[in-house]
Amino acid sequence: MKTSQSNPHVVIIGAGPAGLATAKAMLDAGFTVSVFEKNNDVGGIWNPAAENSPMYNSAHFIASIGLWTSHFEGFPFPPGTPHYPSNLQVFNYLKSFAEAENLYKYIEFDTQVTNISPIGQNRWQIEASSRTFEADVVIVCSGTLWTPVTPHFPGEFDGSVRHAQTYKDPSEFEGKNVLIVGCGNSGVDIACDAARTAKSTYLSMRRGYWFFPKFVMGQPLSEFFASDEDKPEWMAGLDFPKLLELVAGDPSKFGLPRPDHAPLASHPIMNSEILHHFGHGRISPRGEIEKLDGRKVLFESGEVDQIDEIICATGYQTDLPFLADNLVEMNGGTRPDLLMTAFHPSAANLYFNGMIETNGGVFGLFSKLANLLASIIAARAEGRLSDAELSRMVTEADAISKTPGKIQSARHVGYVDTALLVKAMMNFQSQLHPKA
């Protein structure tokens, strides 16, 4: 069923990276566009002034900017930008994109969307900042890293326990015995910060992980493996996972548990400093916490440490409180249960961008997905794409994007491999725009 207007009104929730890419694609398609952003500027989590932004001072891009996936389509980072830009450089890049594409005039800042509900023939009612209005299409780009997941530890603790979302600067750790819980990219970064300023630093991890250096043979890791240039002859006989394992090295040599999974079976941890600090005794590895007792932390291994502060780098849960009750499900993951990370299983004219959890850069993927959504919305508005045909295409593309072989964890529910997601989007676009 086509939308109510030949020129549909598209409402975009959020002006972070995905929201900006989506706004550009919708405007390029000639649609009427409104963007609502709860904070005072574009950038999402990269905006340091955004309330509850998890950005800390030492945070950098973990994907190098040399690959297309790390920047918006047709808008690379400016010359002179380092391979792994700082969070402030990324924020300025996002602002410059919004300015260059004249997006600011379509964005209402300091506007909190409180409710989105389906009405009538595949349309939507939006409540935002005490106003109510209707739209033909809603695209949710509100991000996934705003609501922290904080574990409960048995026992009582006399020190400080807080989520990594509140961390900003290594000076916060001066003179303290600090325990970081969680071994994702943020947890590892924060542990490295603490290693420089804290009295002692411990890193609690529930399993072994592969730590990948950001550079190999003078090139950013991802660009080295993506390059067509000849690799050293001795690499020719190794498959890609074995190469990654060789590059990462055996973490058990640093007193860490050996990973129970292949290098590509979990989200990559990109950090060139963590093994250095383990090797110099500045960070001590620990297993899972058994219980807390005053200032003591008892681990399942039997080890006991005196700790002043616990930082929980334990991830985030996507929170979409503005969507009508029971409209989205998580199904054991940290992101909504969607088809191809973008399509609701049943609701028409409700789409998502920015819910992607993948093994590389995402800004380019946001652009590509936004362009696909624009093609779909145009086809529906023009009556060229029925509900049944769209459902078939979505189901087919979702099957292509499915990524097997990941470790069993909430974070990896719905995880997609970049190459498979791109293949799915290209397949989708080829059906929407068949060659004559």
Report the span from N to C terminus.
Answer: 25 Å
Q: What number is the mean pLDDT?
A: 91
- The backbone outline, from C-alpha atoms, is globular
Helices and strands, in order, run as EHEHEEEEEEEEHEEEEHHEHEEEEEEHHH
- How much of the sequence lies in strands comes to 15-25%
The helicity comes to 25-40%
Which parts are unreliable, with pLDDT below 50 for 5 consecutive residues or more?
none
Could you tell me the radius of gyration in angstroms?
A: 23 Å
Strand arrangement, major sheet: 3-2-1-7-21
What does the model show?
There is one protein chain. By secondary structure, this protein is of the alpha/beta class. The protein is built from nine helices and 21 strands. The chain has helices spanning 17-28, 87-100, 185-197, 221-226, 240-248, 274-279, 363-381, 387-401, 418-432, and strands spanning 9-13, 32-36, 107-108, 113-119, 123-128, 131-135, 137-140, 155-157, 160-163, 177-181, 200-204, 211-212, 215-216, 219-220, 269-270, 284-286, 289-294, 296-299, 304-306, 309-312, 350-352. Helix 1 (17-28) runs parallel beside helix 7 (363-381), helix 7 runs parallel beside helix 9 (418-432) and helix 8 runs antiparallel to helix 9 (418-432). The longest helix is centred in the last third of the chain and has 19 residues, at 363-381. The mean pLDDT is 91.
